[in-house]
Amino acid sequence: MTGIVDYNAGNIKSVEHALEALKAPYLLSKNPLELKNCDRIIFPGVGDASYAMEQLKLTGFDSFLTDWASSGKPLAGICLGSQIIFDFSEEGDTKCLGLLKGKIRHFENIWKERYPSEKEHEESSLLYNELKVPHMGWNSITFCNGGTKLLSGVPDNSDFYFVHSYVIQPDDPSIIKAYADYGAMVPAVVEKDNVTAFQFHPEKSGKYGLQILRNYVNADLGNV
Amino acid sequence: MLKKRIIICLDVKDGRTTKGVKFQNNKDIGDPVEMAAEYYRQGVDELVFYDIMASARGRGPILDLISRVASQVFIPFCVGGGIGSLDDIRSTILAGAEKVSLNSQAVKNPSLISEGARVFGNQCIVLGMDAARDEKMKSGYRVFINGGRVATELDALEWAQKAVSLGAGEIVLNSIDADGTRDGYEINLTRMISENVSVPVIASGGGGTPKHLVDVLTEGKASAALIASMVHSGEYTVESIKKALDKEGVPVRL
């Protein structure tokens, strides 16, 4: 059974629809107690990091997710959920859950550091086809550091649907398992032990997105 | 590499897909849920549903339809038409849409953009803008509302920039002059808006051939192109359009 965290900050419905299409049993709840016996957790989310953290505290999901991560059972964060499992986000200067080491930074800040002078920054923007923020749309991902078993059946360089303005910057780059290129290396799949972060939306990324979710809920489908 | 998106627009009226020319003479062309599923199968990148009578009649969004689409289409889609409150946005998102397009209601109440962005995030709030040429306006284009029926005093470029500053994460820019003509997108309008806002611009209105898409995605600097008649008529499929774009060097998801 897959538990889906419902904390008023997620596009919960599309995750539900995807699991239904896979015929994978799931339990959606606003109450952490109800999810404690699940086999794995999906932690979705869109929107603002500080608002989401407030909602997590109000619902008690902050301590639930911390305990869950240390229990060793699988946890998958999607989009905003993939970001606030790190230590800190520049979005609203928000202290996050700290399940993985690293911070979440705005694209502009990363680009400015990569191209420090004003001129370089402008030229780099031109070079990258006048990049827009949010990074929105389908971008290809490149596997690295050996990938992860959650990407089984997905060809390298497949396209996934991204929508975000902030970027995961893990302290330990070796936990990045796939990345996209958008004026900088954008970690797309990050995994350490039982915790996986998907910056893109597998539930909205067509057949390869569904394949990732299928891999995640595999045990429930009788394909252990 | 980020791909240029091909987005299909389904204008919905009384639960059916319709298509008009220059916003008039709408004809029934099919069931929106079946059409959405077929375009998903063909590899479309995104869908937009416009409830075209909603603003004119003061109705809310089309929740049942959204929910049925969301259960079988695993790509992003946006819903527009009649979304006038935070509750409308919430119910649309909860039914399974990623984004809402705010058009007439945002003109009447711009704080809907900022409040929507604060609660649901910028990525969720799309400004839908219908613009037509008008020499009297500073940028040369005037904003219209209520499905192109009512002129406003807003300049197209000024309104686009204001909406982005309020929190719109994307703009669907529809040229009333080009809508349904299949004579090509309005490149000047698209490029002007795209060059002067920080968020992605989706060009809409006038797409008739793959060449038109190539032009607006390169010269017009659009991040995505909205199409309707081209595929609704059966003349092109998503696959045939994407292959043509790929051949011209436009990055697309194949």
Radius of gyration of chain B: 16 Å
Strand content of chain A: 25-35%
Structural class of chain A: alpha/beta
The DSSP helix count of chain B reads 11
By CATH's scheme, which homologous superfamily of chain B applies? Aldolase class I
Please describe the biggest sheet of chain A, giving its number of strands, its sense, and whether it closes into a barrel: 8 strands, mixed
Largest sheet of chain B: 8 strands, parallel, barrel
Give an overview of the whole structure.
The complex is a heterodimer of chains A (224) and B (254). Chain A is built from 8 helices and 14 strands. By secondary structure, chain A is of the alpha/beta class. With 254 residues, chain B is α/β, with parallel strands linked by helices. Chain B has a single domain (5-247), classed as TIM Barrel (Alpha-Beta Barrel), CATH 3.20.20. In chain B, helix 1 runs parallel beside helix 3. Classes of the chains: A alpha/beta (224), B alpha/beta (254).
